[in-house]
Amino acid sequence: MSAVLADPPLPALVFKPIAERDIAQVARIEEDVYVFPWSPGNFRDSLLSGYQCWGCWMDDELIGYAVVMNALDEAHLLNLAVASRWQRQGVGANFLTFLISEARKLDKEMIYLEVRLSNIAGRRLYEQFGFTQLGLRRAYYPAVAGREDALFLGLNIAARKI
């Protein structure tokens, strides 16, 4: 008889607001996962503008972050990233579930976002949550060879239970 030992469960994810002291860690993840990263100043400006800046921690390690701009009855997800070594382990889905829950608490009806056409993993994640394409933003993102289009997606959270 042989025993197969399962991997130990991952510690619980903790979601809490990003503070100024976290910007260097956020920037390191951003530079690791994006070819054209936001600068630390972009994150600082987001904090100063009052955007929701969330971090995802596992134990004491920051493993992801999100920036959400709220206006009236809608939320716009400006940036969502998970550190490369934690990708494809359900962290992004858990984070998105949390962000949708937070938007509901603020009585938001819609969440909008842009995603690169080439970001297949991101597109699949958003599709699984029921985001639908509302438009196409031509030449929206910088790319190695010029510019890349973005899909403009929306999710009606007022009509959906997750």
Description:
The protein is of the alpha+beta class and 162 residues long. It has helices at 23-33, 40-48, 91-105, 120-128, and strands at 13-17, 52-58, 61-71, 74-82, 110-116, 132-143, 146-156. It has a 7-stranded mixed beta sheet, sandwiched between helices. Helix 3 links the parallel strand 4 and strand 5. The N and C termini lie far apart (42 Å).
Biggest sheet, in brief? Answer: 7 strands, mixed
Instruction: Give the helices and strands as they follow along the chain.
Output: EHHEEEHEHEE
Distance between the termini: 42 Å
- Structural domains: how many: 1
Q: What CATH architecture would you give?
A: 3-Layer(aba) Sandwich
Shape: globular
CATH class: Alpha Beta
Average pLDDT over all residues:
92
Low-confidence residue ranges:
1-8
Report the count of strand segments: 7
Quick recap:
This protein has 162 residues and is α+β, with helices and mostly antiparallel strands. It has helices spanning 23-33, 40-48, 91-105, 120-128; strands at 13-17, 52-58, 61-71, 74-82, 110-116, 132-143, 146-156. The chain has a 7-stranded mixed beta sheet, sandwiched between helices.
Write the layout of secondary structure elements.
Elements: E1 13-17, H1 23-33, H2 40-48, E2 52-58, E3 61-71, E4 74-82, H3 91-105, E5 110-116, H4 120-128, E6 132-143, E7 146-156
Parallel strand pairs: 4-5
Antiparallel strand pairs: 1-2, 2-3, 3-4, 5-7, 6-7
